[in-house]
Amino acid sequence: MGEESLRKRKGEDSRKEDGQPIQSHEPQTMNLQKQAKLFLFPVGLISGICMIVGTIIGSGIFVSPKSVLANVGAVGPCLTIWAACGILATLGALCFAELGTMITKSGGEYPYLMEAFGPIPAFLFSWTSLLVTKPSSFAIICLSFAEYASAPFYPGCDPPQVVIKCLAAAAIVVITIVNSLSVKLGSYLQNFLTAAKMIIVAIIIVSGIVLLAQGKTENFKDSFKDSKISVSSIGLAFYNGLWAYDGWNQLNYITEELKNPYRNLPLSIIIGIPLVTVCYVLINISYFTVMTSTELLQSQAVAVTFGDRVLYPASWIVPLFVAFSTIGSANGTCFTAGRLVYVAGREGHMLKVLSYISVKRLTPAPAIIFYGAIAIIYIIPGDIDTLINYFSFAVWIFYGLTILALIVMRFTRKELRRPIRIPIIIPVIVTLVSILLVLAPIISAPELAYLYCVLFILSGLIFYVLFVHFKFSWPQKISKPITMHLQMLLEVVPAEEVTE
Questions:
Q1: Which one of 96, 235, 325, 435 has the minimum C-beta count within 10 Å?
Q2: pTM for the complete prediction?
Q3: How far apart are CA 486 and CA 482, in angstroms?
């Protein structure tokens, strides 16, 4: 063995002298995590705050205002819900900051649930994320894009559903193709669309402040009059408000890039999410300076109506930039989609082919195509409000479980080092709120969508018992020829085999 390595070294030395490049024999694992590390740079407090604001602000603020208002019925409770959602997101993110610095494994909530409760809840989380929450999120964002992109072509009336759904499906196909072809192209597109998103947010907020200064405050008088408050309506309003804050739970992924993370991570959260909250409340106030509650509820695309009344004749700017913002959110969702699929495939919790990488383009093409296909299936029967309720119901079951895991590990895993330690009252409050968010809509306004969602999550247990626990061989016999043909069709291989 020693002679062999010596011969290899001599061969390399001789190639060096001849001026030939040395080809590394070590395989290059091109999963998303490693690709991300190629672009790592130290992130300070200001950059951390900007990253948080850029991650959270997306399509939600252009879609959710109408649904939040529809559930509570008046301006005052609507603005209160937006502020309360920001507080809840901040508290939840602080809980995740403790978990992220205590258990430094990738895969989102998966390792936290595994450490606290074992493999079954962890598997159900990956099962639900892969087949419910991630694709439905992708579908909601593309439907939002379609609504705003089609609204200017149908002035004074709602665009036909078939137009919205075809446009949303086309957006999913284009984003899927772009991200399957090139990681670099996807990231360049993301940078451009993020800039567009921040421009439209600034335009709406500044316009609203100017209108307030001009005395447009009549819609804020008696702001709690005609409100319809119930446990169910507040729960559904929270679902729609929290959809706009989605992304707060991903903040612990920047830990390894932060300078002095144990100081800057909680500070970034405490400054960043309240900053988003202020932006969201100001955007809603801007909407109410030019629209009554009734007009806002009747508007097909709230920001387009705002643009028509405030920025005419340049009102075309609003739907254009909102479309850029929503397509940017969808692109970001697709851009990061491969990470969990890769982890689940590696653990044997999903078809192995989903964790494979394109040989020529070094992209997780099977994972991205899989997400795109499932998202198109969600678009066919669903509308935005139904999908948001379906998404939020599923996701808050696991947010609640994950934060309960933090409380459980305070007693069962006392030996773990906790660089960030938050007061126990914070995870207790977030856990109780998540229980309320999950149970309130079921008890007071039961819908079949929630039942389907619970049955779908629990059906993961059948797959776990058959394919993970007992490891039956017949599924492998069926999947091997499928995997082989997909490998040849898509030109993909396991990540470990992708070499430079």
A1: 435
A2: 0.82
A3: 6
